[in-house]
Design brief:
With 410 residues, the chain is mainly α. The chain is 47% helix and 6% strand. The protein has 14 helices and eleven strands. Helix 2 runs antiparallel to helix 3 and helix 9 runs antiparallel to helix 10. The longest helix is centred in the middle third of the chain and has 21 residues. The two termini are 19 Å apart. It comes from Candidatus Doudnabacteria bacterium RIFCSPHIGHO2_12_FULL_48_16. GO terms for molecular function: Glc3Man9GlcNAc2 oligosaccharide glucosidase activity.
Length: 410
């Protein structure tokens, strides 16, 4: 095994074990001990994908802990306060969890675990959770049956202060993190008044159809079809396949313009034309044609005025007024974003830019450690320490066909 991969695996496993917790008989991983001492939805999906390479049983425990707090209506909360800490103690109107969700990576993570050990019993245990979660999104988050999934809070995107949400929040392109946080906390208070009832809350306070959320949903519906097929549930497989086609069609009809997919807001689907990394996430779900994918990569990803900087991929285009290389989700490079784009590029056989992203991701964590985010201009790490997302480079390396040579790393 390549020495680089060995070193990364060793450090990744060390962080995952250090960040492992056990409460009430459940085992889970926190993203960072000091900054994020709870369990998060898409974080745990990332953890499970990584853990499946080391020990599929640990990966299963991660997911089982996550779904143990699933709501009766099928929603899975984006946060579980297994043990209350000193940070992020927000009132979500429900004891022990938040009342909002996060990008639905659950089916994808479950399938990645299954691919390692082919444990059909695990699929059988997980399927009811998956069925009700994705049906919740198809119903409560799409009350008008237009086949686009809505979010009721920017935090549901996983990108809390992304400039994609400035307009719906009534904020200018340039503002402080404190101003953004106060506005999002005000939204939580508004959500409390409507008891986090998604259709009502969306209509009255915050109604965004986000491109990443919907693209991730499309890819997970595709995987859900595979899971249903594996369990012999042919009718379910056909149903989820149809839903996948409908959401993809709706994204093209209501989000696509001039070669790019844009998030929308409001009942009339006004496009939010802010250029962020979100324009690349349709690659992950194979929504684009080959020609569209190549144009997207050549015109935007490889454009040095937008995303192709020293340490790609910045979460916001360099030429956007909102770009801030140290602005949390307003510019810094995040390893999970790189992972999504990397996987998307491989879907279209675009191996050269995929390899560049993989190598710079490795360089970032080699140079700055397992930090939460990185300055795309100089590679300096910032945010949380011992942050688990850096371990996603393991999946990048293993997904890439060409062996990594130590001398060709940088």
């Amino acid at each position: 095994m390549d020495q680089i991969l060995k070193d990364i695996e060793q450090k990744s496993l060390e962080i995952l074990l250090t960040n492992r917790r056990q409460t009430d008989g459940f085992q889970y991983t926190i993203p960072s001990p000091q900054t994020y001492p709870y369990q998060w939805l898409w974080d745990s999906c990332f953890h499970a994908i990584i853990l499946s390479y080391f020990n599929p049983e640990d990966a299963k425990k991660e997911i089982l802990a996550l779904v143990s707090k699933q709501f009766e209506n099928g929603m899975i909360p984006h946060m579980i306060y297994w043990q209350k800490g000193d940070v992020i103690n927000l009132n979500w109107g429900k004891d022990g969890t938040s009342s909002i969700t996060q990008p639905p990576m659950l089916a994808y993570a479950v399938w990645e675990i299954f691919k390692k050990d082919h444990d059909k019993k695990f699929l059988e245990v997980m399927y009811p959770h998956l069925y009700h979660f994705y049906n919740y999104l198809l119903t409560d988050r799409d009350p008008r049956k237009n086949y686009l999934i809505g979010i009721i809070n920017p935090d549901e995107s996983g990108e809390d202060n992304s400039p994609r949400f400035d307009i719906p929040l009534g904020l200018p392109p340039q503002h402080t993190l404190d101003e953004n946080t106060k506005r999002r906390y005000k939204l939580i208070d508004e959500n409390l008044t409507c008891n986090f009832d998604a259709p009502f809350c969306m209509k009255n306070f915050f109604w965004v159809k986000d491109v990443p959320f919907n693209a991730i949903f499309v890819e997970n519906l595709r995987v859900l079809v595979l899971i249903a097929d594996q369990l012999g549930l042919k009718d379910d497989a056909l149903n989820f396949q149809q839903q996948q086609l409908e959401v993809t069609k709706a994204m093209r009809e209501k989000m696509f313009e001039d070669g790019l997919f844009w998030s929308t807001y409001g009942e009339d689907y006004k496009k939010i034309k802010v250029v962020t990394w979100a324009i690349f996430i349709p690659l992950f779900a194979k929504i684009l044609s080959q020609e569209e994918a190549v144009d997207l990569v050549n015109n935007h990803l490889l454009n040095p005025d937008e995303f192709w900087c020293e340490f790609p991929i910045p979460t916001v285009a360099l030429n956007e007024p909102s770009f801030d290389p140290e602005g949390f989700w307003r510019g810094p490079t995040w390893i999970a974003v790189n992972w999504f784009i990397f996987k998307g590029l491989l879907n279209y056989g675009l191996t050269e830019p995929a390899e560049k992203i993989m190598r710079t991701s490795i360089e970032l964590i080699t140079q700055s450690g397992f930090r939460e985010q990185f300055n795309p201009l100089n590679g300096k790490g910032s945010g949380a320490y011992d942050f688990t997302w850096g371990a996603l480079v393991i999946d990048m390396i293993k997904s890439f066909e060409t062996p990594i040579g130590e001398k060709s790393l940088i």
